[in-house]
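User: quick one, sequence for these tokens?
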């Protein structure tokens, strides 16, 4: 028996060592290639540095053609320099071995372009020769003889690396993912696309190493930042990433199908493909600041930084950083398109300040019945205009002033932009009341020029008077979005502006919530209101920032590439983002969550843009998805849409996906969940609160998971518990994060604890969908903690999650 075991051991030992030596040989082969790439890159760096310095010295001399050529050279050199200086961790990550192609055409990167194999590429006996090998990396590198050493992952020649599948392999026989760190190749993982072939490369059989790169990537521990998926983009994802940027690219897919990853890679692809066009900027709108910080490292890792702004939907308006989440009932009011009517009235109504109204009311009363000895109330400064012109006193009061204001507000222009017209009508009214007007009438019959002069000096006289200036500031103040929002916190005034739009209860709740905004604590939904108000009011003229003149700015793209400039790429991106109000391409992540008012805000940033919209209706936390869809359609206008669907869940193991699907069936009956790509054999765990101590139970369950995974643990609780939960977990270290249910959107952890499904589901009308989001955050393990409210069965399974 023992002898037999030993024999088996020896046999498998030999097989293993053979595999190991093949693996090592293959790794060594890739190392030779990588060394060659780095040698070439060093040459390019020297060339680039020389070119940059030379260009800087020469300034602007030469013919326009020569200058353009030099600019282009400098641009290319700069791109290399900038990216190479970043020293990527896995600069070279892929390789494909291809059959002979149908035609002999080569693309600009030196690779053959045909997708299908030539007719005689495979011999009748099933053998074939590898005709071409391409290495894929983060940027393209040509050898000195223009043969491709590395193909940029976004180049057409690299597409088969992502698109080829065993069902539709094209020319690809073997697809290899290369893992490296710095300049050292660490490993390779192969997928065979044509397993039926016996292919040879340089006379030797093509070896196949490992179980495939995708599984290796999915099994890795997660950190607090997202990684790029450039080495393992799947075919259906690649179709979206490389879709032409015409009008709207619309992508739907369940949790974990890679929508966020695809959106980010698409931004990098679009920049590669048409850098000039997208120098107008790409905006990525993300639902939460947490998701922004989770994803913002991906683009730099793809070599792109300068032109892309990732912003949370609550941070789209400069200077207004939303820190608060509204109750679902308030969010529903603030997000609804009904608010547009209220804001339109408020933007005009706020011209009349509260003091002005009160003063008008009490003066009316005071005029009627002033008690003996009682002082007549002082009028508000905006209630009476008293000026002296040509030595005579002229006054406008009450009804006259009101009529002028109404006439001006009859125009459709933003309120702040109507101020010059209001000023003119005031002067007209004063003029027609003045004796000078009569005199001018007489004069004008004889000499119109003299009459005009008289009027003009009348205007000058008045407009230089302090009384007139003070009156105008009080009567037609420059309104700010914050000021109007604060005015809306006055329940009485809000009630007037919301008449026939909101009911009394809604007015009360909204006014109360806006009182917090008046103190500067904006909620995510307030920001869309501020943006709408900015449009309704008209932005006050801002002084333009003066930029220093730099002759190098004239060189195409050079400014962003000069590594020695004081402003870093990131600073430049931030500055441009501040100055920019519209973008060339807008990407909306988690689009199902945008409210109608938010869609209007985002829509204004991409009026002439092309769009990529990714989302999942099943994860919508907005209670009326139909209304949001209507608003989305309005923002996107009649632009044609190309629709894509992502169908595979790369995040959750099948065991977790199956549990989440039970909630999906309750939340959206009939909706299909995506197929999980892997299973771990670890079933979700159900724990019931022990000894009535929720804090201790959650802490113990989180600690248990920390022992079982290498990476992060997310603890998802109902929104009202998020601060409490952070305290419960404080001592467990920074691998554990406490999250409110709405904050979990888009994020993922190695393991998650979902605390009280019933509490999360009952929090809002969309609660079941929010719970579905919470249950789909784990890449490896899930624990569900139930309290009494969850009505757990004997096995601890809460009512909502039972089959
Ligand atoms: N082709 C791939 N190769 C490796 N990992 C992938 C691939 N596609 C997706 N993933 C991984 O799967 C996880 C889910 O991706 P992502 O967050 O983009 O999905 P999502 O559709 O936006 O999910 P959700 O809707 O739940 O927010 C991420 O860890 C991502 O890196």
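Assistant:
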């Amino acid at each position: 028996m023992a002898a037999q075991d030993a024999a088996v051991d020896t046999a498998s030992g030999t097989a293993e060592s053979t595999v190991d030596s093949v693996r090592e040989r293959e790794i060594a082969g890739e190392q030779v290639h990588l060394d060659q790439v780095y040698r070439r890159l060093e040459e390019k760096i020297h060339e680039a540095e020389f070119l940059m310095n030379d260009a800087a010295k020469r300034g602007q001399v030469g013919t326009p053609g020569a200058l353009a050529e030099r600019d282009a050279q400098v641009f290319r050199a700069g791109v290399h320099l900038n990216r190479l200086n970043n020293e990527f961790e896995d600069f070279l990550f892929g390789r494909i071995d291809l059959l002979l192609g149908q035609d002999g055409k080569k693309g600009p990167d030196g690779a053959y372009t045909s997708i299908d194999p030539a007719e005689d590429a495979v011999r009748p006996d099933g053998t074939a020769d590898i005709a071409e090998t391409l290495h894929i990396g983060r940027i393209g590198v040509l050898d000195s003889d223009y043969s491709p050493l590395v193909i940029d992952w976004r180049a057409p020649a690299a597409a088969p690396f992502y698109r080829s599948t065993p069902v539709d392999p094209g020319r690809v026989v073997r697809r290899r993912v290369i893992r490296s760190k710095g300049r050292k190749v660490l490993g390779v993982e192969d997928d065979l696309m044509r397993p039926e072939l016996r292919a040879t490369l340089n006379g030797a059989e093509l070896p196949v190493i490992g179980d495939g790169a995708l599984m290796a990537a999915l099994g890795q521990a997660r950190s607090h930042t997202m990684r790029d998926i450039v080495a393992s983009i799947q075919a259906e994802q690649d179709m979206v990433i490389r879709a032409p940027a015409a009008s709207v690219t619309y992508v739907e897919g369940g949790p974990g199908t890679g929508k966020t990853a695809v959106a980010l890679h698409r931004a990098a692809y679009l920049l590669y493909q048409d850098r000039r066009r997208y120098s107008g900027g790409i905006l990525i709108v993300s639902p939460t600041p947490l998701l922004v910080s989770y994803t913002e490292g991906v683009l730099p890792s793809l070599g792109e930084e300068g032109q892309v702004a990732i912003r949370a939907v609550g941070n789209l308006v400069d200077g207004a950083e939303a820190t608060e989440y509204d109750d679902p009932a308030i969010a529903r009011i603030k997000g609804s398109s009904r608010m547009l009517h209220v804001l339109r009235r408020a933007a005009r109504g706020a011209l009349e300040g509260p003091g002005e109204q009160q003063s008008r009311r009490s003066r009316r009363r005071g005029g009627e019945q002033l008690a003996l000895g009682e002082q007549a109330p002082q009028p508000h400064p905006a209630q009476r205009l008293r000026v002296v012109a040509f030595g005579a006193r002229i006054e406008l009061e009450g009804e006259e002033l009101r009529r002028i204001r109404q006439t001006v507000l009859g125009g459709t222009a933003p309120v702040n932009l109507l101020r010059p017209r209001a000023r003119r009508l005031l002067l007209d009214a004063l003029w027609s009341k003045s004796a000078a007007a009569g005199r001018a009438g007489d004069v004008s019959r004889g000499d119109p020029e003299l009459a005009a002069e008289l009027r003009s000096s009348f205007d000058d006289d008045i407009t230089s008077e302090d009384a007139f200036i003070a009156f105008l500031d009080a009567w037609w103040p420059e309104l700010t979005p914050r000021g109007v929002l604060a005015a809306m916190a006055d329940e009485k005034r809000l009630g007037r502006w919301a008449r026939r739009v909101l009911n009394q209860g809604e007015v009360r709740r909204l006014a109360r919530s806006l009182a917090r905004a008046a103190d500067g604590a904006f909620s995510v939904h307030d920001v869309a209101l501020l943006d709408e108000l900015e449009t309704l009011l008209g932005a006050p003229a801002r002084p333009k920032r003066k930029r220093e003149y730099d002759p190098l700015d004239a060189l195409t793209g050079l400014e962003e590439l000069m590594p020695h400039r004081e402003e870093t790429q990131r600073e430049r991106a931030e500055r441009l983002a501040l100055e920019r109000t519209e973008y060339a391409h807008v990407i909306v992540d988690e689009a199902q969550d945008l409210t109608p008012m938010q869609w209007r805000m985002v829509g204004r940033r991409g009026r002439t843009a092309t769009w990529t919209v990714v989302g999942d209706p099943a994860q919508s936390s907005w209670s009326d998805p139909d209304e949001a869809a209507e608003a989305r359609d309005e923002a996107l206008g009649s632009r044609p849409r190309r629709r894509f669907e992502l169908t595979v869940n790369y995040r959750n193991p099948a065991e977790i996906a199956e549990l989440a699907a039970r909630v999906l069936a309750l939340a959206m009956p009939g909706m299909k969940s995506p197929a999980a790509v892997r299973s771990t054999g670890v079933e979700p765990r159900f724990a019931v609160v022990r000894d009535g101590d929720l804090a201790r139970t959650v802490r113990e369950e989180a600690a248990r998971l920390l022992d079982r995974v290498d990476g992060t643990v997310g603890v998802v609780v109902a929104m009202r518990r998020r601060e409490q939960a952070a305290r419960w977990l404080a001592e467990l270290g920074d691998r554990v994060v406490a999250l409110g249910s709405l904050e979990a959107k888009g994020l993922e952890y190695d393991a998650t604890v979902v605390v009280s499904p019933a509490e999360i589901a009952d929090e809002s009308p969309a609660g079941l969908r929010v719970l579905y989001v919470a249950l789909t955050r784990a890449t490896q393990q899930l624990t569900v903690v139930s309290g009494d409210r969850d009505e757990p069965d004997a096995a601890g399974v809460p009512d909502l999650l039972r089959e």
